[in-house]
Design a protein that fits this description.
The protein is an alpha/beta fold. It has 15 helices and six strands. A six-stranded parallel β-sheet has the order 3-2-4-1-5-6. Helix 2 links the parallel strand 2 and strand 3.
Length: 325
Amino acid sequence: MSADKPTAIFLMGPTAAGKTDLSLALTERLGCEIVSVDSALVYKGMNIGTAKPDAELRRRYPHHLIDLIDPAEAYSAARFREDAFTAIQSITGRGKIPLLTGGTMLYYKALVEPLATMPGAHPEIREAMHQVLQKEGLAPLLAELKEVDPEAWARIDRDNPQRVLRALEVYRASGRPISRFWAESVNDGQGSLSSEALAAFPWRLVQLCVAPDDRAVLHQRIALRFKAMLDQGFEAEVRQLFERGDLHPDLPSIRSVGYRQMWHYLSGEWSYQQMTERGIIATRQLAKRQLTWLRRWPDLTWLDSSAPRLEERAWQRLRKAGLDV
């Protein structure tokens, strides 16, 4: 890493691993400003289910890329890249250190490596597919995707209508499979990141990852956090969104873990117990996917967040990188 570059810190890790507490401690000691790397924190009115820092915390510790858009809107990795670069440049321009933290791994990768240039949104194509989805379900759309792009069919989350619709939208709009765009891009949204890409990043990166070494500890934290969200009024928060009338479960915002499960409960499809159990299971599955990404990520210092003296071990890594802590 070049010493003449300004420094940026990546604080990564799965959900419920302890990133928030450590990020605040780092900010307190180093005078950082926090840049959220979380696809759910961009939505206004989604606070409890995203563990969004409250107004008082954000006054004490500057945060960026939170509460950007309404849940009815879409937010992309490409837009995150633009917004994050703007925030990082502004922070370093003030002589501060940007601390990027969150659990949306694709956003980290989009920031470091360029994305493929794909066709933009086509409302007419998307509307036609939504009509099929509403009348016949996801099965015919999945069958079409398997025929025109078997690689994408094998790789994407086939339980996620948004991903399926986007892959088909790209094919119908361009005549080219989305998997071909992935192959032509340095960042295919799936594979590992190269050390060369990190070295070319305009900032000198110090990368930390916090996660309990014992997976059972992480699972326990996830269950406790989900139940704490329920105690804090999560149902009432989602009910407000549910009763707006302009939101639906295919939107990226409502597909966020926790919100999707509560939506099924409010729709009468699941019991409260089912919602709770499936919300915890879905969060565990999210953490598993995050850890899979992180194990491929180069130059990452792993810290066991369940071991004592986490902050001191983080300071040691930062001092080794040349930061005055």
